[in-house]
């Protein structure tokens, strides 16, 4: 088993009904990676995340998580998930930040539930990481979009995951909050060595922020981390059109 | 005032009322926040057909109502899977089926109409000792289940997909919870009546949510709103000779209007 490889996706095929959504996709994610997955809407990015999370089952191919076949994998606290804010919750829900973050500390059916004191300590710890420790008692619906997304990062961090999967996390969030959000992700990746896989249709952000970039189009990986930056740039221009200028930073 | 507590039927009605005053909003808050308020209405109509079947067959009506409503709850879960894009359709189908069976059975045995009236609208005079024990025993079980699984139920209501990813056995918890909804409705029929039971699951919650500072706080406020309406409703219905269910629900609506009005000031 290669302990450095957290996720291995091999020749994965997935279809909704008879419509192919992912076609022969292969991808590895290693510990410490900051992987960006870009592609237009409907290219299969979110499906890829849902397959890794076990929400969907592949029609063909295999997925390994932490060296285990996904069918046998049960260490789900190693994986944190942050989804689109809009899809995350009903903003009128009367729940505090502490309640939302604490709910995710679920040790599994065989482990004892955490006591109230331990739960509160852990919640405060992760809220400090995302610099939201003063907001624990606030109703989550009363926070701004950017603050809510930081709370959802805290929620994902409460189980001390090794990898964070983010699905279009900054949709509907203002630009300043987006910048803060991406700085937080970089801090988690560099200082806490948390592996990140972020899916977005926002090509500019992904190519600026992520260490490695893969791009998807029509259910296929059309560029790979091994492609050179200029190759990626050329492929993306084909997918998104020639009107865009691409700035790719090396990390 | 004190003399009403000396009557056995009032003691039973109040004890049963206190229990359902906890049960209905405790279950109801999860229903409201998951936008499933209609399920109470559907299951209560099925419970009514169970009562009618019990009376026709000479079997303890609440036991029959319990069997009917639990079976219907499982049926709704099944139908929701088959019509996943139209979840409310499952509830409408079950409601219609329940009401259809009830009407057929009632027309079959016309003489049972008077007994049924109490089940329809609630009647504190009709809470028998065996009803009280059933309400107490199952009520304790339901409250214990919710207490032990509060965080799981909260997480599923807040964000079902993330709850599943966190490892919570969402399917199993949902199935058990649906059975508990059916049980709560059956137990509450004696006091609030089949036609009004879902109101007691929804209106106190609507009041609690308006003032809540957290989810636990919302639950507590909903229980306080329901208990106040149930206890004062039972006492009022005794003195004014009114149907207890209607009195309780009207008081609940009054509290809600007061809270909404005060918030606007």
Walkthrough of the structure:
- The complex is a heterodimer of chains A (251) and B (265).
- Helices cover 33% and strands 25% of the residues of chain A.
- Chain A is an alpha/beta fold and 251 residues long.
- In chain A, a hairpin with a 2-residue loop joins strand 4 and strand 5.
- Chain A is globular.
- Chain B is mostly helical and 265 residues long.
- Chain B has a single domain, classed as ABC transporter involved in vitamin B12 uptake, BtuC (Orthogonal Bundle).
- Chain B has twelve helices and no strands.
- Chain B is globular, with a radius of gyration of 18 Å.
- The interface between A and B is medium-sized, with 31 and 26 residues.
Main interface by residue count = A-B, 31 and 26 residues
Order of helices and strands of chain B: HHHHHHHHHHHH
Radius of gyration of chain B: 18 Å
Mean pLDDT of chain B: 89
Q: Kindly, what is the distance between the CA atoms of the first and last residues of chain A, rounded to a whole number of angstroms?
A: 28 Å
| Assembly state of the chains shown | heterodimer
Query: What is the CATH first-level class name of chain B?
Result: Mainly Alpha
In N-to-C order, the SSE pattern of chain A is: EEEHEEEHHHHEHEHEEH
Q: Give the proportion of residues in helices of chain B.
A: over 70%
Low-confidence runs of chain B (pLDDT<50, min 5 residues)? none
Our estimate of the beta-strand percent of chain A is 15-25%
Q: Which consecutive residue ranges of chain A, at least 5 long each, have pLDDT under 50?
A: none
Number of helices of chain A: 8
Task: Name the CATH superfamily classification of chain B.
Answer: ABC transporter involved in vitamin B12 uptake, BtuC
Number of strands of chain B: 0
Helix tally of chain B?
12
Largest sheet of chain B: none
Report Rg of chain A.
Answer: 18 Å
Task: Outline the secondary-structure elements.
The complex is a heterodimer of chains A (251) and B (265).
Chain A lengths: L4 E12 L2 E12 L3 E5 L6 H8 L7 E6 L2 E2 L9 E4 L2 H4 L8 H7 L12 H14 L15 H13 L5 E5 L7 H17 L3 E6 L2 H7 L2 E6 L2 E4 L5 H12 L11
Parallel strand pairs in A: 3-8, 3-9, 6-7, 7-8
Antiparallel strand pairs in A: 1-2, 1-4, 4-5, 9-10
Chain B lengths: L7 H26 L4 H20 L3 H22 L4 H22 L4 H9 L7 H20 L1 H9 L1 H6 L4 H23 L4 H15 L3 H26 L3 H21 L1
Helix pairs in contact in B: 1-6, 1-9, 1-10, 1-11, 2-3, 2-4, 2-5, 2-9, 2-10, 3-4, 3-9, 5-9, 6-9, 10-11, 10-12, 11-12
């Amino acid at each position: 088993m290669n302990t450095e490889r957290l996720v291995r996706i091999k020749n994965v095929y997935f279809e909704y009904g008879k419509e192919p959504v992912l076609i022969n996709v292969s991808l590895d994610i290693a510990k410490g990676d900051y992987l960006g997955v870009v592609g237009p809407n409907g290219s299969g990015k979110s499906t890829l995340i849902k397959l890794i999370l076990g929400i969907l089952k592949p029609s063909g191919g295999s997925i390994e998580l932490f060296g285990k076949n996904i069918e046998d994998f049960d260490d789900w606290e190693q994986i944190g998930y942050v989804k689109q804010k809009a899809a995350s919750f009903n903003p009128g829900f009367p729940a505090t930040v502490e309640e939302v973050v604490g709910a995710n500390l679920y040790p599994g059916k065989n482990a004892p539930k955490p006591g109230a004191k331990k739960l509160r300590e852990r919640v405060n710890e992760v809220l400090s990481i995302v610099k939201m420790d003063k907001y624990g008692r606030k109703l989550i619906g009363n926070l701004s979009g950017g603050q809510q997304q930081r709370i959802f990062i805290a929620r994902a961090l409460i189980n001390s995951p090794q990898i964070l999967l983010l699905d279009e996390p900054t949709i509907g969030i203002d630009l300043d909050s987006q910048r803060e959000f991406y700085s937080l992700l970089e801090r988690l990746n560099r200082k806490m060595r948390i592996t990140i896989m972020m899916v977005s249709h926002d090509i500019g952000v992904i190519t600026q922020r992520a260490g490695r970039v893969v791009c998807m189009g029509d259910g296929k990986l059309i560029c790979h981390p091994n492609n050179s930056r200029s190759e990626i740039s050329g492929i993306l221009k084909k997918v998104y059109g020639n009107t865009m200028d691409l700035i790719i930073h090396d990390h | 005032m004190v003399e009403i507590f000396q009557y056995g039927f009032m003691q039973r009605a109040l004890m049963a009322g206190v229990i359902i005053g906890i049960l209905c909003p405790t279950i109801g808050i999860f229903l409201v926040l998951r936008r499933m308020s209609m399920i109470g209405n559907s299951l209560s109509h099925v419970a009514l057909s169970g009562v009618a079947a019990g009376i026709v067959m000479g079997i303890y009506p609440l036991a029959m109502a319990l069997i009917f409503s639990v079976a219907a709850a499982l049926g709704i879960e099944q139908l929701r899977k088959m019509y996943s894009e139209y979840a409310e359709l499952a509830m409408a189908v079950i409601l219609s089926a329940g009401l259809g069976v009830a009407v057929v059975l009632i027309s079959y045995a016309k003489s049972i109409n008077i007994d049924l009236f109490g089940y329809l609208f609630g009647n504190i005079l009709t809470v028998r000792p065996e009803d009280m024990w059933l309400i107490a025993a199952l009520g304790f079980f339901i409250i214990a289940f919710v207490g032990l699984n509060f965080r799981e139920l909260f997480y599923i209501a807040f964000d079902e997909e993330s709850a599943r990813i966190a490892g919570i056995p969402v399917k199993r918890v949902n199935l058990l919870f649906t059975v508990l909804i059916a049980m709560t409705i059956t137990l509450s029929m004696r006091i609030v009546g089949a036609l009004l039971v879902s109101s007691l699951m929804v209106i106190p919650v609507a009041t609690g949510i308006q003032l809540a500072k957290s989810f636990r706080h919302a639950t507590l406020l909903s229980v306080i709103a329901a208990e106040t309406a149930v206890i004062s409703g039972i006492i009022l219905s005794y003195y004014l000779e009114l149907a207890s269910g209607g009195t309780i629900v009207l008081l609940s609506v009054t509290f809600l209007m007061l809270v909404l009005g005060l918030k606007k000031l």
